[in-house]
Design a protein that fits this description.
With 380 residues, the chain is α/β, with parallel strands linked by helices. Helix content is 29%, strand content 25%. The longest helix has 19 residues, at 177-195. The structure holds pyridoxal-5'-phosphate (PLP).
Length: 380
């Protein structure tokens, strides 16, 4: 347990795990491919500012976020390397992007023209990357429209087209057919652009799964999020190779231990009713910390290296667990004992992947939903 944590539930983010994961990813890339660290959504819950500083020191070449606000947060945290906003940025944020030297994604000529006016008004150059839709069918310019879009961008004053990228829908699946089709479309597009002298210097496609399993897609730059944090791109079909380490643990202190008599119920709605005398512990985290309430919760947390089942409804800031069996095996549970919500305790572990399975989601969702009010403590 850390000394006097700012709250009685906290995350421990491992500096050495993050550094190690950056090096592992780097070792899978040739020196010709840059590594872009995807640190959107508060660095997938790991805390954007400090996590990005650690990743920058470990050698990531660039950063990516979802919004301009996230990019500005990184600049305020001392991130000096290039930052790309992956999502749509509205024209009214162009001046702010220029002020913070942030690279924007462009998807349509109307917004790009407004970016151009904003840049030209300041006699500045706004760096942009074009996003091409090769089959994810989310954001992006259709491949047949890319050459004319690129040519139109070239004519806009104040706009420097540095990159072009696409995003895979299924690179984390065993069957790579759709991802390979997407990549073939992207390659053909790059060749056509090159023929016309329009290929930007930085072409990129790979996410973590493609970085790990489709090395021919690395191109000039690979964008990695989930693997940086030591988490599997897909827990069944695309697990990390040995050598990566999960960087995040979620812990809490027992804040009360109590008796439950037969017939007494726990929490809102009295969903759990004791059938025998029980001992229960209260933990100070709940759904407003990102610990899900419905339709499922984790099922149990760890105390003394054993599973402590969650009883009744998870509340906004409190969760009650059964410690009857744990006390029978190890003696009284006390105020101040440490519980593990994600991570290891003794021989036992609850991974973000295992938690996601119980909740019916993925590990991305589990870690990125942990709210900012849970303090992040950076440990060795
Ligand atoms: C456009 C884009 N590139 C890269 C990533 C990183 O993906 P991953 O975390 O699977 O590496 C994301 C994340 O969703 C993304 O939206």
């Amino acid at each position: 347990m850390p000394t006097n944590p700012p709250r009685t539930t906290w995350l421990e983010i491992s500096h050495s795990a993050l550094t190690n994961n950056v090096r592992q990813l780097r070792s899978l890339l040739t020196p010709a491919t840059q590594l872009m660290a995807v640190v959107k959504a508060n660095a997938y819950g790991h805390g954007a500012a400090e996590t990005s500083r650690i990743i920058q020191r470990a050698g990531a070449d660039r950063f990516a976020v979802a919004t301009l606000g996230e990019a500005i947060e990184l600049r305020a945290a001392g991130i000096e390397r290039p930052i790309l906003v992956l999502g749509y940025t509205p024209a009214w944020q162009a001046a702010e992007a220029l002020a913070h030297d942030v690279t924007l994604t462009v998807l349509d000529l109307e917004t790009a023209t407004a970016f151009s006016s904003a840049a030209a008004a300041q006699d500045a150059l706004l760096r942009v990357h074009v996003k091409a839709n090769t089959g994810m069918n989310r954001l992006g310019v259709r491949p047949d429209a890319v050459p004319s879009f690129m040519a139109a961008l070239r004519a806009l004053p104040g706009i420097a087209v540095e990159g072009i990228f696409t995003h895979f829908a299924t690179s984390d699946e065993t069957d790579k057919q759709h991802a390979e089709n997407q990549f073939a479309v992207f390659q053909q597009m790059l060749a056509a652009l090159a023929r016309d002298g329009l290929r930007p210097p930085v072409a990129h496609a790979a996410n973590s799964a493609a970085l790990l399993t489709m090395p021919h897609t690395h191109l000039d730059l690979a964008r990695s999020g989930i693997a940086l944090y030591g988490l599997d791109p897909d827990m069944d079909q695309c697990t990390l190779p040995p050598g990566f380490e999960p960087a995040l643990a979620w812990k809490a202190m027992v804040t009360q231990v109590a008796e439950l008599a037969p017939g007494e119920a726990v929490s809102y709605g009295r969903e759990f009713i004791a059938e025998r005398p029980m001992r229960v512990a209260v933990l100070p985290m709940g759904y407003a910390d990102g610990f899900p309430r419905r339709p499922f919760n984790w099922g149990n947390v760890l105390l003394r290296g054993m599973p402590a089942p969650i009883l009744g409804r998870v509340c906004m800031d409190q969760t009650v667990v059964d410690v009857t069996a744990i006390e029978a095996a190890t003696g009284p549970v006390r105020l101040g004992d440490e519980a593990v919500i994600i991570g290891r305790q003794g021989e036992a572990a609850i991974s973000a992947e295992a938690a996601s399975q119980r909740v019916g989601t993925n590990n991305y969702d589990i870690v990125s939903r942990i709210l900012a009010r849970v303090p992040r403590l950076y440990v060795e």
